[in-house]
Amino acid sequence: MKKQVVETVFDGKQLFYVDFGDNFVRGSDPQLRLWIDKSFLTKENNKWFVEFPIRNCDVIEMENKKDLIIKHGDSNLFYFYIVPGGKGKSVIDSIDIDQSYKVFMFTDDDIDRMTTSKGIIILTKANRVKLKWHRDGDFYDLKYWLKNGSIDSLGYNLLPEGITLLYSDGKIETIPNDKVVEYL
């Protein structure tokens, strides 16, 4: 998943960040701000982007719990975001990782669509993250927004629930119910 990054200059130093999480009040402070080392970024058409997952990194969490510094290290930083249907909400039910991990969760509230979307950023040395999630709402509305390019899709269909595997190489797999795998 590619996210556009904001470039700013402070005291002559070029800095880059991306915000996650929005509150009901438009223009409110983000819930998380990732300050990202330039070496993790790519530039396309005069715009800076970061590609998730970010490999070989570490996170320094500032005292305010909002600002996260992304620097070089030996972990992977995964990003996952679930958009609900209109007038609905999304929930991340569980996280399954075979190594220790640190979670940073955020929420986006959209007044116009009356939705609450959940997102998560996970720092771990593991190369795979398993997430169980569900969402509700008017999926006809979600199809409209996806069709018009207003919402990013992570490659999964309009499932009301699912299990998603995120891999450090960027591959994403989703299935409605992973119990079927036991029988095949």
Textual characterization of the structure:
- The protein is mainly β.
- The protein has one domain.
- Helices cover 7% and strands 54% of the residues.
- The chain has two helices and 14 strands.
- The chain has helices at residues 139-147, 180-183; strands spanning 2-10, 13-20, 32-36, 41-44, 47-51, 54-61, 67-72, 75-82, 90-96, 101-110, 115-124, 128-135, 161-167, 172-175.
- The strands form two sheets. It has a ten-stranded mixed sheet with strand order 4-5-1-2-3-7-6-8-11-10, with no helix packed on it. A four-stranded antiparallel sheet has the order 9-12-13-14, with no helix packed on it.
- A hairpin with a 4-residue loop joins β13 and β14 (172-175).
- The protein is globular and about 55 Å long.
- The protein starts with a strand and ends with a helix.
Keywords:
184 residues; mainly beta; ten-stranded mixed β-sheet; four-stranded antiparallel β-sheet; 14 strands; 54% strand
Give the SSE map.
Elements: E1 2-10, E2 13-20, E3 32-36, E4 41-44, E5 47-51, E6 54-61, E7 67-72, E8 75-82, E9 90-96, E10 101-110, E11 115-124, E12 128-135, H1 139-147, E13 161-167, E14 172-175, H2 180-183
Parallel strand pairs: 3-7
Antiparallel strand pairs: 1-2, 1-5, 2-3, 4-5, 6-7, 6-8, 8-11, 9-12, 10-11, 12-13, 13-14
Number of strands: 14
Biggest sheet layout: 10 strands, mixed
Morphology: globular
Order of helices and strands: EEEEEEEEEEEEHEEH
Spatial sequence of strands, sheet with the most strands: 4-5-1-2-3-7-6-8-11-10
| Class by alpha and beta content | mainly beta
The number of helical elements comes to 2
CA(first)-CA(last) distance: 30 Å
Helix content: under 10%
